[in-house]
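Request: How about a record?
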Amino acid sequence: MLVWSRSGKLAVWSFAALLVGIVFLAPLAVILAASFAGQWNGVLPSGFTFEHYRQAGDGASGEAVFASLATGVVASLLALISGAWAALALRSQGGGAARTLGVLFFVPSAVPSVSVGLSLLVAFSQKPLLLNGTTAIVFIAHFVLISAFSFGNVSAGLARVSPDFEEVASCLGATPFYRLRRVTLPLVAPYLFAAFGLSFALSMGELGATVMVYPPGWVTLPVAIFGLTDRGDIFSGAALTIVLVAVTLALLLALERISSVQTQARNG
């Protein structure tokens, strides 16, 4: 910290707490209050009810929860596999070509998500690859948007791994596959968990491309929330937003716990 005086530290922490409270906590508190509200005509909501959460567990809202979870898990796994594979391949290649390909891998993340959705919609609306109106195009859209982040996380982890470990394993007669499975991947395991967690969080909140390509019957949570609020059903949309936050946070905490346990087991 660049502030050493006690009064200066107090001022900095107070400003940080105020900023966090206004920017992050206050909007979330308003959404949480709205999710339990029967009506909101004054300063505070009234008519406390669980009805909005009951509706979130069945019908179209329940299907949206399943669609988001399925899309997030499948797209994140595909992004993790392809991103890790690309990071390992470019690491072994090295040189200017590897840097150029690494930059190209980040191109989809620099393109607006609406543009990605529109391009996929146009590209896959004709034979022989007719995917428009299927759930597959939703998975592809999410995969395109999050794969760069998986690649970036795994690349950062590999950059921190000393080549000495792999060289020692090679000198002891380890095959490339054995070295990858027992040396390299365990060393970058925290980055693999982080890559999956980040990809899942991004997929769960993705709206721009999804709203362009989603078929009937496969409505994700962000699309469902957008639809509810667009129709004026703010309270049901708030309840689904809290469900979205809770599900995403629960999975991220679980991944963090698993990663910590594995790290302690390896170091202990």
Remarks:
- The radius of gyration is 23 Å.
- The chain has one domain: 21-37+47-267.
- The mean pLDDT is 86.
